[in-house]
Fold this sequence. Notes:
The chain is mainly alpha-helical. It contains 13 helices and no strands.
Amino acid sequence: xxxxxxxxxLWIGVTVLCVSLMTFGxxxxxxxxxxxxxxxxxxxxxxxxxxxxxxxxxxxxQPIYIQFVRxxxxxxxxxxxYSYYFRRPVTELLVTKFASTALLAGLIMVTAxxxxxxxxxxxxxxxxxxxxHGILIGSSLLLGVPTFLLALLLIYFFAFQLKWFPLGGYxxxxxxxxxxxSVALPTGMGYAIFLRTNMLSILTADxxxxxxxxxxxxxxxxxxxxxPNALLPVVTLASIDLAxxxxxxxxxxxxxxxxxxxxxxxxxTQQKDIPVIMGSVFFGALLIGFGNLLADLLAAWxxxxxxxxx
Length: 310
């Protein structure tokens, strides 16, 4: 187990390094950050002399590989840099926004699981029925609609037409309902289809036929024998999804103007704020890496047959 953990942590470090290098290169490939940072008059291009001074002040006049090595040196000391646009340390920005993103991510996961697990079980137990086909069709529709479009539809009907919820923002529980449903509905229906497929496969196993031969009802067989095994891959997938959601849901937070990490990253991208972009990518890569590790550990804990590192 110890060797497995060390190996996985080392691979997380390699992954974070590669993702950071790619992000750094893409930022400079998309344009000169000094052009965005230089003050300008409306409708006029920035003064080249001002751009040169800005480039020198922020160290952007150095070759890109030197800038990246310097970034890694600061990173090794726990310094994610200072935001050009927000005028605050990047670590402070991430910590400040993480609480609201974590709240939204937690609500999305709870709602998705509450929706997905009962619907998936019901579809498996009512296989090939009208209800089962209805669930499959509804799931396909929700999974096929882009998340931002679903968010806009929810805003139109429930905020603009019915006026049940605010159009966006943050502050009360009403502000959380629409952004939560925008992600939780397709995610939950995805879990439902996944669980249905797993249960239908398990319900044909030999030990399930043995349980039925003992006189147990179909519902009891499903709950006590099929569901625990069918849940294993769903739990693994949910762990990875949670790590992804904690990195910030850029589209949803932007549509609803929700003050989380995702909206902050979008604003930083618009302003070519390199420290915030790099810090957010580093933070996100770490979360996803450790989310994958947590998923493996949960799978081994739930199923003793799994041997990590074997």
